[in-house]
């Protein structure tokens, strides 16, 4: 299964425009989180959320009211099952 960086970028842009949140989707290599998509390519500080052993999200503060929706949509695009 291939992952569309375009889909990830669009999702991040949508959340940025709707909620003013900067997001960086990263691939995880041990302790290193490598940017792969999003609108926060220079975002290194912030909340780190591990989606699974391979992918993570770095974000400004994510309001709890939208966190579940955002994480669910990311996991769908990244083909992550809970």
Give, in spatial order, the strands making up the sheet with the most strands.
2-1-4-3
The value of Rg in angstroms is 11 Å
Query: What's the number of helices?
Result: 2
When the domains are counted, the total is 1
Brief account:
With 82 residues, this protein is α+β, with helices and mostly antiparallel strands.
Can you walk me through this structure?
The protein contains two helices and four strands; from the N terminus they run αββββα. A hairpin with a 2-residue loop joins strand 1 and strand 2 (32-38). The chain is 35% helix and 28% strand. It has helices spanning 5-19, 64-77, and strands at 23-29, 32-38, 47-50, 55-59. By secondary structure, it is of the alpha+beta class. Strands 2-1-4-3 form a four-stranded antiparallel β-sheet. It has one domain.
């Amino acid at each position: 299964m291939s992952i569309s960086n375009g889909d990830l970028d669009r999702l991040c842009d949508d959340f940025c425009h709707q909620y003013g949140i900067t997001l960086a989707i990263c691939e995880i290599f041990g302790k290193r989180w490598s940017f792969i998509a999003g609108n926060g390519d220079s975002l290194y500080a912030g909340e780190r959320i591990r989606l699974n052993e391979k992918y993570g999200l770095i974000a400004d503060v994510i309001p709890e009211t939208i966190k579940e929706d955002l994480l669910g949509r990311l996991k769908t695009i990244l083909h992550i099952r809970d």
